[in-house]
Write a structure and sequence with these properties.
globular, three-stranded antiparallel beta sheet, ten-stranded mixed beta sheet, 457 residues, 17 helices
């Protein structure tokens, strides 16, 4: 970045010089370790995500659906073979996520989900690492019995709900055109244990973000909001930015007053703004756009392996197949595409990483173009994150420290749990990984007693 750039955000102005923001000293454009310039090594990737399209069918007809027809449903043996392929490439990762969301409705194959979850427990005990089964459901089939089965099996699940009723029912509809909001909300309200349940919201430029967020945070402790995946159609990024301004002002005012429920909901999951805020609060830089094809792989029902779920059907994004596994040359290609050099000099680059590879490909037919609308939103979110930290640190230092601590804890969720692993190894077979993890999650004091005893304390 050359010279000083003035950034105005809400009621404040900042001078940004070579990536450093005034009133906060936030380094926002420089990469201290540009590891993507080095040859690919699996040691760089600590969290591995394996995406499964276990169902190409769905009982909704969402207007913005990006699902594609790509063959028959997968079998358990095929899923197991895929997981083996990926694990061989990354035998020493900190964590493995098995995402069963797919392009259809996963709960249409509940029996397979439970079988995969059981297999994840076996792998966790074998590798002494967490293999976490996850999924996002449209929520229409989320009966009390199904919730009990999922939670008993250790499946972490989220529910798609696009904010308030009007916004949700504009796009998330049944085949007859009726909205899904009422039945999904009713199913969420009936869940007894919601601590690990989140809502995933997809928004458009017609969405009322604050209203939708407040509606969702009444139901669950975690809310993640993302823009609809670009399909080449134009949308009004400035309208979305204005909605974010309203949302951030509201959440910040509540936080300054000591009410943390709202900001916790955003930083506890995969929310777009929440991710930027965590990176600013913790001083974290990302090494590239995303992990597609280097730490994230998707098995499609056509038995091909793609770099991510959004890439299914794109031949240039195919990195292998079920029979032969993942091709190292394809991973190397994806590694070289980590950074989008069109982003050079952008003040949000180190927190953003650049445009999603697949959005670039779907819109332009290339991995290295950018969608200006998405860039407008991301730059706004980064600036709002700096603004949030700046205002909070001035007006409530105690809560600012809480924000940094809570953000670090949220980020550590993806890191190796050294104490848990140590306890398993010290037990010499008396405890499995899944047994001790369950104890630690449910009763930390009991876990500490066990660990102290194993250490000879």
């Amino acid at each position: 970045m050359n010279g000083v750039k003035k950034i105005e955000i809400l009621d404040r102005a900042y001078a940004v010089n070579d990536g450093v923001w005034s009133r906060g000293n936030y380094a926002s454009a420089r990469f201290e370790n540009e590891i993507d310039r080095q040859p690919f090594s699996s040691e760089y990737i600590r969290t591995i995500t394996m995406c499964l399209h276990i169902s190409g069918r769905c009982n909704l007809k969402c207007k913005y659906c990006f699902g594609v027809e790509c063959g028959d449903d997968l079998t358990f043996d095929e899923v197991r073979k895929f997981i083996e392929h990926v694990t061989v490439l990354y035998p020493r990762a900190d964590r493995y996520i098995v995402d069963m969301s797919g392009a259809g409705e996963p709960l249409l194959r509940l029996d397979l989900i439970l079988k995969i979850a059981e297999y994840c427990c076996e792998l966790s005990d074998k590798y002494v690492r967490e293999f976490l089964p996850t999924l996002v459901t449209n929520g229409t089939l989320l009966s009390a019995d199904t919730v009990k089965k999922l939670q008993s099996a250790g499946v972490l699940f989220g529910v798609s709900l696009d904010g308030a009723k009007n916004d949700n029912d504009r796009n998330r509809i049944f085949a007859d055109g009726s909205g899904s909001y009422d039945i999904v909300r009713s199913n969420i309200e009936a869940i007894e244990h919601k601590d690990y349940v989140g809502i995933a919201t997809t928004y458009t430029d017609k969405s009322a973000l604050l209203d939708g967020f407040l509606s969702s945070v009444e139901l669950v402790p975690t809310v993640s909001m993302k823009p609809v995946r670009s399909n080449g159609e134009a949308f009004d990024a400035e309208m979305i930015c204005a909605e974010y301004d309203r949302l951030v002002r509201y959440v910040l005012d509540k936080h300054i007053d000591g009410e943390t429920k709202f900001i916790f909901a955003l930083i506890n999951g995969d929310d777009y703004f929440g991710k930027f805020l965590k990176r600013v609060a913790c001083g974290i830089s990302v090494y590239g756009r995303c992990d597609a094809g280097v730490g994230r792989f998707a098995l499609a029902p056509d038995r091909n392996i793609y770099c991510c779920p959004a890439a299914i059907g794109n031949v240039d994004c195919k990195v292998g197949d079920l029979e032969n596994g993942i091709r190292q040359s394809k991973v190397d290609k994806m590694w070289r595409a980590l950074n989008n050099w069109a982003c050079s000099g952008c003040y949000a680059r180190s927190a953003c990483g650049g445009e999603c590879k697949i959005v670039s490909y779907n819109k332009f037919g290339e991995l290295d173009k950018i969608d200006d609308n998405i860039c407008i939103i991301k730059r706004r979110l980064f600036a709002l994150s700096v603004y949030y930290c700046d205002c909070l640190s001035e007006r409530n230092a105690e809560q600012y420290n809480w924000l940094k601590d809570t953000a670090l804890k949220a980020e550590s969720y993806y890191m190796r749990d050294e104490k848990l692993i140590d306890a398993v190894l010290l037990s010499n077979g008396d405890y499995t990984f899944t047994q001790l993890k369950k104890i630690k999650d449910n009763d930390i004091d009991e876990f500490e007693k066990i660990y102290s005893r194993l250490k000879g304390g």
